[in-house]
Amino acid sequence: MVENLGEEGFMEELCNGFRLLMDEQKGVITFESLKRNLSVLGLKGMSDEEVREMMREGDVDKDGCLNQMEFCVLMFRLSPGLMDGSMRWLQQALGQKSSCF
């Protein structure tokens, strides 16, 4: 997917995915907003407990929801193939040289 979209296009798609799933009033992905959008993800049959587990897996700050950074990190963790080029993409996104890492 990254090869087709390029790094910027891929990051934009992740941001679009976050906005699609988030609760617009709260600006984060909540259990309710994720549950409401399961069919969009092709996960319509997930139980409430499976949705809660997915939320817990990505909820680094333990506030019960996913902010944009937590969502992006979760998507990378759930897609092992994305990890191959992730350092290079991160460096390009941050505009820093590889010697900084």
From TrEMBL:
Key words, A-Z: Calcium
Listed InterPro entries: EF-hand-dom_pair, EF_Hand_1_Ca_BS, EF_hand_dom, KIC/PBP1/KRP1
GO molecular function: calcium ion binding
Pfam families reported in the protein's UniProt record: EF-hand_8 (PF13833)
Positions of the EF-hand domain: 46-81
Protein name: EF-hand domain-containing protein
Species of provenance: Chenopodium quinoa
